[in-house]
Amino acid sequence: MFCPKCKCEYCDGFYECADCNTTLVYELPEEESGIQFKELKASSNPAEISYLQSVFEAEGIRFHIVRTNGLYGGGPGTLLVATDDFERALEIVNDLTWNDK
Fold this sequence. Notes:
With 101 residues, the chain is an alpha+beta fold.
């Protein structure tokens, strides 16, 4: 199941996006299907994933979130970014203050 708005992926049994309150769909819309994604960051901190989601939306970076567990589908997850946007997304993540340098 996927959120058509934020592109989060949910396990079976979830029907609404915990972030967007949008009804989930079985497949992403047609225009998203041709995009290749690459793993950028896995995090056990749901706030970090949500923050990156809002930053990437503001920057126009195409992304996809795979939630691994958590109440109502929120929680830890893996952030995937379109391969064309990967370098720019990586720069943004590396500039954030919580990263160890």
